Amino acid sequence: MKKIILLGYMGCGKSTIAKLFAISNSISYLDLDEIIEKHENSSVKKLFSEKGEIYFRKLEHQILAKLIQNPDSFILSLGGGTPCYSNNHEFLKSEGVISIYLNASVATLYERLLNSNDERPLIANKNPEDRKEFIAKNLFDRSFYFNQAHYKINVDGKSPEEILSEIETILA
Fold it and tell me: Which of 97, 110, 112, 153 has a Cα at 20 to 30 A from 128?
């Protein structure tokens, strides 16, 4: 098996689906944000507030580069913005990598992110009225990078098990 990378906007289900896939296929599960948090002994939110987004994005790029060079097979859940910085989208095309964009509509993302203020630094200070507009604009800005993935799966209205089945069909 190869390196499977799940990407998409925050709240699209990357971590949930990656965990399910790892269990179902007996492959290692990695979460880029969790790896960064362990490396820095700090939360993503705290890194953003104390060291800034530029520091975080540089570190994110360095760790992703090391993971891509690793010879092991795994499924990796990226952070929502990872493909959009430091030419990280080019890693999606690396040899031995299969990238899958979990595409969710603005309405789905808004609903899923409605009560996740504290853990998501980009929307932490947005009131509910501004959040939907922010998600729509941010999703549009990132769509070029997300669409660099080899495959695209629409996740709206689907259970994690249905999405997992679609991924397994693609990879079969």
Answer: 153
Cβ–Cβ under 8 Å, residues 12 and 103: yes
Going across the sheet that includes 28-31, the strands are 28-31, 74-77, 3-7, 97-103, 151-154
What phi and psi values does residue 37 have, to the nearest 5 degrees?
A: -60, -40
Q: Alpha-carbon torsion 47, 48, 52, 56, what sign? A: positive
Q: How far is residue 148 from each of residues 6, 43, 99, measured CA to CA in Å?
A: 12, 28, 8
Please report, as a single letter, which amino acid is at residue 98: I
User: What DSSP element (H or E) covers 75?
Assistant: strand 74-77
Closest CA to 73 of 22, 38, 20, 35: 22
pTM of the predicted model as reported, rounded to 2 decimal places: 0.94
Q: What is the largest CA-CA distance in the chain?
A: 45
- The helix-helix angle for 44-69 and 32-40 (nearest 10°) equals 110
> For residue 118, which phi and psi values (nearest 5 degrees)?
-65, -35
3-state secondary structure of 30: strand
Encode pLDDT of 57-106 as tens digits.
999 999 999 999 999 999 999 999 999 999 999 999 899 999 999 999 99
